[in-house]
Write a structure and sequence with these properties.
InterPro entries: DUF7824 (IPR056726). The chain contains 48 helices and two strands. The chain is mainly α.
Length: 899
């Protein structure tokens, strides 16, 4: 046993298996007790010493466990996993004398855990082989198997190996490939392919394996249909549909799964619903779709927003009605469901279909359809009257129009910082252990819950470290055992460009636990962190400066609490509350930290705070005087330069740039605020300098780092909007999903709602991804509810962006339709009335203008046009020849101005 412990302490991991195998059961039990004590001891070492013995300790502990459950727990210990090659082959050797049933039990237990690499899959599969049984089939095992397959596809410089060749030679493919269809979510590598017409992907390989008899084709098809009915992530659904199309499906299988196709047509994503609709059409052509089933399926499809699906279903219904007039009584009421569709052209198609097939002698059906037609707008009034007679005026409800807007969001007060060790440790560990840290550079980590948890935890660490340092340190060390930053600390020079609230919290915890030396803290506090040329790096630099300062505070117990902890969830700070905190500092004789106090100034609510300014001045301290002057100035951090919108030539603040692709870009500049460089720490100086807008891509922007950006300047939404404008510009073009996260937060921020905020909103309304357009619509409605929306300004900014091909009209129409559907018809009409003249002046109508005109017409019909100026070019467009969507909707809108 002593030889084993000596080898472990020496880090001689290759000697460990033989030493373990030389021990009997009693010897291993005794050695295990020593190894457990050593493991506890190692947690207090620096990371270099830990790394030297980690493998040896991992192998020795696994080999000395006599129970499979304990062995699995030991092998899976996070603190025993290094970043170099895994010691699993050595563990297999150390377990070489175990009973096959025991090895099978161990494999099953490990398979139930989360696997981090393909090496763990290989380890488990080898255990299963040694046990003489099949490899365990769990989600983790399948993920590890896919990872191994993906790694094998790129063996080195020789290029990529075809996927089908790897799968053909894999001994587990017949067992694990079908398991892909049972996982909650597919591994990312499975649904990826290089090009749209690529054949070297998983669906194609699975088809080939089915053709060769390795996999059961009918079983694959059945599982695909099951998953498509169940629903799930869009990428997963596309994968299962592609597999289904690759392996094929027989006519018998189509008939047997009728209810599944109906369900997909009703609830599937567009591409899946379209496929199901095609199957239903084939079933109908073969006489295998009953009228009742067609009516049921159609009723669901006609409620969908996708025009192509609704149009296709109406075509199918028309074919059936033309073939068998006796179905009119059952199918025409279903056709009338399209009257509720938001697209006027589809409403008209449904109305014409009813007119064509309505029996002359069915009074009850005519009455039912007449009642349904009452939901149609004025544009269809003439056609409805011709078909059903005049609408009973008693049924038309008249009354003053009332705009429906959401309630103005109320600021939510932060709960007090955790005051007990137990509560604080729970919150800190919840934030840090929920992230996947990799070494000393964790990268961008999500913080979707906002700034509140971080700020409470940061303030709590400072408070409790002063009152119960020993208890807090011990509890944190125990709760965070096995995490990299708790055992090794983090880089003493973290990169400000990639700073996150998780990283900042880890830095403070590392200082408290002694994993970041005090000398590193001193150097960090004196280092200029506000580097970079973009707002993201600058705002991250402010966070890093605060983190270094707090790391010093918890190491020295210098301050009782932080000054900059927000009062409300937006990051804003109540001025009276800040005055009271400064009063406590004065009583205790404490000088505020420069970064902490500077952040507090940027967060303090200045509007209507004259009383707080007087109280601050009465403190008689430099900080009190600075606070009073800051409140009384009541200026934005830096003024945003307005731009002239009538010229393509650059002017002050109006930056028409061209990207690499030659596309113009509208950005805003900000002026200088000399006070920032005079009175704030160097890490804040970027914020006060004049900024010329720059649209170049940077590598540290996105929703995953968002909370502290907007919470740094919660009272200066206009300034933030100007700085974050490049992000929003990319959102309207090639940017990633979720990039418009900031818009609702900017609207909640204090300060002026000027050209920057309205331009930012304009970019968001034309965003590429639907979820970003939803964020923009939310911001639009809240801004309107606050009474701060300038519809003329927003409409003008949208016109500029559309005119310079920065926003697509069809995307804007989608946003306008979504906003109008909430009941904000007058708001939307006010904006569109300013956009449409620009679009109607084009020689060639842009794609989507018909949809935009339809939304404007719908709004005008709902709220009237009182107070809305006539739209230039509308009458000319309405008077054109033809029956295009643009002409018809222009005529519809023009009619509302005449009534």
């Amino acid at each position: 046993m002593s030889d084993l412990l000596t080898a472990v302490r020496a880090g001689a991991h290759r000697e460990v298996p033989a030493l373990v195998l030389g021990l009997d059961a009693a010897g291993r039990k005794a050695a295990l007790a020593e190894l457990k004590e050593l493991r506890k001891e190692v947690r207090g070492w620096d990371w270099q010493r830990q790394d030297r013995i980690r493998k040896a300790l991992h192998v020795a502990g696994a080999g000395c466990h006599t129970g499979a459950a304990g062995c699995a727990t030991w092998i899976g210990g996070r603190d025993l996993r290094g970043w170099s090659r895994s010691p699993y082959p050595l563990i297999l050797t150390a377990l070489g004398d175990r009973d096959p049933a025991w090895l099978g039990d161990l494999a099953q237990r490990l398979a139930a855990k989360s696997l981090n690499s393909d090496a763990e899959f290989t380890f488990i599969s080898e255990l299963a082989r040694m046990a003489g049984g099949p490899v365990p089939v769990t989600d983790s095992v399948v993920e590890g198997w896919v990872e191994r397959i993906s790694t094998a596809r790129w063996p080195g410089r020789s290029g990529r190996t075809p996927l089908i060749g790897i799968l053909r030679s894999d001994p587990h493919v017949a067992v694990l490939a079908p398991r892909l269809f049972e996982m909650a979510e597919l591994p990312g590598q499975v649904s990826w392919y290089e090009t749209a017409d690529s054949t070297d992907h998983w669906p194609g390989a699975l088809r080939t394996l089915a053709e060769e008899g390795v996999l059961d084709r009918s079983r694959l098809a059945e599982r695909c249909v099951t998953r498509l009915v169940r629903g799930g992530k869009t990428g997963d659904q596309r994968f299962f549909l592609t597999v289904l199309q690759q392996v094929g499906i027989t006519e018998d299988e189509e008939r047997e799964r009728l209810r599944d196709w109906m369900g997909m047509a009703a609830d599937g994503i567009s591409v899946v619903a379209g496929h199901a609709q095609d199957v239903l059409a084939r079933l109908d052509a073969r006489g295998e779709l009953s009228t009742r089933d067609l009516a049921e399926a159609s009723g669901a499809v006609l409620f969908r927003r996708e025009k192509k699906l609704v149009r296709g279903q109406l075509i199918l219904l028309g074919k059936v009605l033309g073939r068998d007039p006796s179905t009119a009584g059952e199918l025409l009421p279903v056709v009338a469901e399209a009257f509720g569709n938001e697209d006027v052209a589809l409403q008209e198609r449904a109305l014409k279909l009813i007119a064509r097939h309505l029996p002359a002698d069915d009074a009850a059906l005519r009455e039912e359809l007449s009642f349904a037609a009452r939901q149609l707008g004025p544009i269809h009034r003439e056609a409805v009257t011709a078909l059903f007679g005049a609408v009973d005026e008693d049924d038309v409800v008249e009354g003053p129009y009332e705009e429906l807007l959401p309630p103005v969001p109320e600021p939510v007060r932060l709960d007090p910082a955790p005051g007990s060790v137990a509560e604080l440790v729970e919150e800190v560990s919840a934030q840090l252990k929920s992230r996947s840290w990799q070494g000393t550079t964790p990268g961008a980590l999500a913080a979707a819950s906002g700034i509140s948890p971080f700020e409470r935890a940061l303030d709590g660490l400072v408070r409790v470290a002063r009152t119960d340092r020993a208890g807090l340190t011990e509890a944190l060390r125990e709760a965070l055992a096995g995490t990299w930053y708790a055992e090794h600390g983090i880089d003493h020079q973290p990169e400000p460009a990639y700073m996150t609230t998780d990283h900042a919290l880890a830095l403070v915890v590392g200082s408290l636990l002694g994993r970041v030396s005090y000398q590193s803290v001193v150097e960090g506090r004196s280092r200029w962190t506000g580097t970079g040329t973009c707002a993201h790096a600058a705002l991250n630099g402010v966070l890093l400066a605060r983190a270094w300062e707090a790391a010093g505070d918890v190491a020295t117990d210098r301050v009782p609490f932080l000054l900059a902890t927000p009062t409300w969830h937006t990051g804003s700070l109540d001025p009276a509350e800040l005055v009271e905190r400064l009063r406590t500092y004065r009583r205790l004789g404490i000088t505020p930290g420069p970064a902490d106090f500077s952040q507090a100034l940027l967060r303090v609510r200045r509007s209507g705070a004259e009383e707080a300014a007087d109280a601050a001045a009465a403190l008689g301290t430099p900080e009190g005087d600075r606070l009073a002057a800051w409140i009384r100035a009541d200026e934005p951090l830096v003024p945003v330069l307005r731009h002239g919108l009538t010229s393509d030539r650059p002017s002050a603040g109006n930056w028409w740039q061209r990207s690499a692709s030659g596309v113009r870009q509208v950005l805003l500049a900000t002026k200088e605020r000399p006070l920032i460089e005079r009175e704030f720490p160097r890490s804040f100086h970027w914020l006060g300098r004049p900024r010329v807008p720059n649209s170049r891509d940077c590598y540290h922007w996105g929703a995953d780092q968002s909370p502290h950006w907007t919470a740094t300047l919660p009272e200066d939404g206009e300034t933030l909007a100007a700085w974050l404008m490049p992000d929003l510009l990319r959102t309207a073009d090639e940017g990633p999903r979720g990039s418009a996260w900031c818009l609702p937060r900017l609207v909640e921020a204090g300060g002026e709602a000027g050209v920057a905020l309205h331009l930012a909103l304009a970019y968001g309304l034309g965003a590429r991804h639907p979820e970003d357009r939803i964020s923009a619509v939310d911001a639009l409605l809240v801004l309107a509810a606050q009474g701060r929306l300038d519809t003329v300004l927003l409409g003008r900014e949208l016109g500029v962006l559309v005119d310079h091909d920065l926003v697509k009209v069809n995307r804007l129409a989608d946003s306008a339709r979504t906003a109008a559907a909430t009941g904000a018809y007058r708001t939307v009409l006010g904006v569109l009335a300013r956009v449409l003249p620009t679009l109607l002046a084009y020689e060639k109508a842009p794609r989507g203008i018909g949809d935009l005109l339809a939304v404007a017409a719908e709004c005008a019909e709902r709220c009237g046009t009182e107070g809305v100026e006539p739209i230039a070019g509308l009458a000319a467009t309405a008077g054109r020849k033809g029956s295009s969507q643009t002409v018809r909707q222009a005529a519809r809108l023009a009619k509302t101005f005449k009534e």
